[in-house]
Structure formats: structure tokens, C-alpha cells
Write a structure and sequence with these properties.
Layout: E1 4-5, E2 21-23, H1 29-39, H2 52-70, H3 76-102, H4 110-121, H5 129-141, H6 155-161, H7 165-173, H8 175-180, H9 194-213, H10 216-230, H11 238-243, E3 254-255, H12 269-274, H13 283-289, H14 291-294, E4 299-300, H15 303-312, E5 322-324, E6 326-327, E7 330-331
Parallel strand pairs: 1-4, 2-5, 3-4
Antiparallel strand pairs: 6-7
């Protein structure tokens, strides 16, 4: 099969230079989706919602809180091992479900989707579900536009992290903190609104209850699970997989490995960007319907191998991203080149 992405034999991540890769072309997904629909109009039937995702949210929140209760009196090392080996997977799945809510793929009502997202956010301890929605939808519409895409690293962030193993390991370990530093760069997006404050209030109430009723080790388990789920963990390689230039100039890459089971097919990232109105449960059907579009693209089969490559390959760094200077065909000022 062509394009199977074993990172140990994959193509170069691109030239080694301390700058982003700049593009004058539009993001690739809208055009590809149109071409795919011309050949496979039945894909429109996959568009819709999956209300069972709401039930899954409540089950997983219960599982995570139950695990925190069981670990409330254990040694700290036991709590951390449990967070890495188990809690991180539950936390990551809840992140994917927050992502589904951001696209209104659970219920038709935006209000219900927001409420489900707030519930899914509770075990993460940090209120981020509703602010994520604001920035994530802009990421889809303006992929690679520095002023509008919070998925892009900051210039200072890329300079600070550099290309060393240690710098990249610390960046992944503290990934949620670096993520929080990006919204101020996106001046056109209003960070706070009523729903964000509801998210904050619900989260603070939950955190206080966990600390009061279950104790600090339960809180530690939930917090560590969250940080591992998006950071220095095989699951954290998802952030590299999605839009980093690991093979030529392909700026979005899918993952088709076994971790798509707990991650609810979030690895089908080209498929998701091409058809963001298709819920997680139907993304494999998109690939199956249009194999000529997806199987010929570079793709990953191991997040673990990708994580190791990212950490040890100096040619793969935060600079390995495409930045574009157009938004919907209208030019904007490009991010200044680094000295």
C-alpha cells in the first residue's frame, strides 16, 4: 500500500530553518471536499449528529470521577501511574466529545451541545470547552492564518522551544499552558462571553467539590490525566499528527491506528477537515467511500513512533507548520519572518 506512514521510514519533515513554511494557496480541504462530492455524492448522507455521544459523556465523566474516588488514598506514584495508563485515555476521549459539541454534532440545539461540552469538561479541571469552540471553528475556516488560527504556535513559542529533545519534551508536558498563551494573539475573537462564564462557574464548583469531598489526590489524578491526555504521552502525538509537516508539504495528516478506538476516530483528520459536519462515528465511512482521495495521502499508523520522532528529530519542530497570508481569498498581512 502506498503512503503508509511508518515514521522511521517516512519522508523528510522539510528543510531545517527557524521559520514557518509560507503558502499563498488556500487551505486544501474545501476544494478537495467539492471534488470528492462530485465523485461520491452519497457522502452527504453521512452528515448529521450522533446523540449517543451525550450518553458517552456522562458515562465517562462518571468513570473518571469514580477512578478519582478509588485513588483518593493511594500513594502519589500510584495516582500518577493510573493517570498515565488509564485516566489519560478517558480524558482524551472527553476532549474528542467536546470537539464534537463544538461542531454541533451531538444535538441540533447549540445550547444542548454547549451544556454537554461543559459536563465533558468537568474532569479536566480547567474551564476550556466553550472557549475551545470559538477558536476551533476559526481554525477550520482559516487554517494556517496566523491571526486567526490558535492551532498555530506563537512565534515566541517556536523560538523558545527550539529543536532540542528537552525543549520539545517540556513543550508537550506543558502543552495546555502554551495553548492558553495563544488566544491573545487572535485579536478578532472575543474571548469572554456569557457561556464562557457559565463554563468557568461550573468548573470552579466541580473542582471545589472534588477537593472537599474526595481530597487532593483525587484532584491530582484528574489534573494529571488531563495533562497526560494532551501532552507528553502517545496521545499527545495527535497534535503533531494533525497539521505538522512530517512528510513534504502535506499540511493535514490522518492517523489510522488502534488508538482511534479510545480516541473516537479523531485520527481521521483529513476526513474531518474535509467534512466537518460528519460525526466521529461515521468518519471511517468517509475514507471508505473515497479511497482514491485518502489512501494516496501520507498517513500515520503509530502515535508512539510519531511522538519519538518529534522528540528526537531536530528537523521536526514547532516551525514545521504552514502559515498562509490569505483568508477566503482575501490577502492579509503575513506573520513577519523570524530574524
Amino acid at each position: 500500500m502506498t503512503s503508509v506512514a511508518d515514521p522511521s521510514v517516512s519522508g523528510s519533515a522539510g528543510p531545517r530553518r527557524d521559520d514557518f513554511s509560507y503558502s499563498t494557496a488556500r487551505e486544501p480541504h474545501a476544494g478537495r471536499a467539492r471534488e470528492i462530492l462530485k465523485r461520491h455524492p452519497a457522502i452527504r448522507d453521512l452528515v448529521g449528529r450522533n446523540p449517543w455521544s451525550a450518553l458517552l459523556v456522562f458515562v465517562l465523566v462518571g468513570v473518571q470521577v469514580g477512578a478519582a474516588w478509588l485513588l483518593r488514598d493511594e500513594a502519589i506514584w500510584v495516582v500518577l501511574v493510573a493517570a498515565f495508563a488509564g485516566g489519560a485515555f478517558v480524558s482524551h476521549t472527553l476532549w474528542v466529545l467536546i470537539h464534537e459539541c463544538a461542531h454541533n454534532l451531538v444535538f441540533r440545539s447549540s445550547t444542548l451541545n454547549r451544556l454537554v461540552a461543559i459536563v465533558a469538561n468537568l474532569p479536566h479541571l480547567l474551564p476550556s470547552a466553550l472557549s475551545f469552540q470559538k477558536y476551533h471553528l476559526k481554525h477550520h475556516a482559516f487554517q494556517g492564518v496566523y491571526e486567526l488560527d490558535a492551532d498555530l504556535p506563537n512565534l515566541w513559542e517556536a523560538r523558545l522551544v527550539g529543536r532540542s529533545f528537552l525543549g520539545k519534551a517540556i513543550w508537550l508536558f506543558l502543552f495546555p499552558i502554551f495553548q492558553v498563551s495563544r488566544p491573545p494573539r487572535l485579536k478578532e475573537i472575543r474571548l469572554f462571553d456569557g457561556w464562557v462564564f457559565v463554563n468557568i462557574a461550573a468548573q470552579v464548583a466541580f473542582d471545589v467539590l472534588v477537593l472537599a469531598l474526595l481530597g487532593p489526590k483525587a484532584l491530582l489524578f484528574l489534573g494529571a490525566s488531563f495533562f497526560f491526555s494532551v501532552g507528553l504521552h502517545p496521545l499527545g502525538a495527535r497534535w503533531i499528527q494533525e497539521h505538522y509537516l512530517v512528510n513534504g508539504d502535506q499540511e493535514t495528516t490522518s492517523y489510522y491506528g488502534i488508538l482511534n478506538i479510545p480516541a473516537l476516530n479523531v485520527g481521521y483528520h483529513n476526513e474531518h477537515h474535509d467534512f466537518p459536519s460528519v460525526p466521529w462515528s461515521r468518519l471511517p465511512a468517509v475514507r471508505k467511500a473515497a479511497p482514491e482521495a485518502y489512501d494516496t495521502l501520507f498517513w500515520h499508523r503509530s502515535w508512539t513512533l510519531l511522538l519519538l520522532r518529534f522528540l528526537f528529530d531536530p528537523n521536526l519542530s514547532l516551525w514545521s507548520r504552514v502559515v498562509r497570508a490569505e483568508r477566503g481569498g482575501v490577502s492579509v498581512a503575513a506573520v513577519p519572518a523570524t530574524p
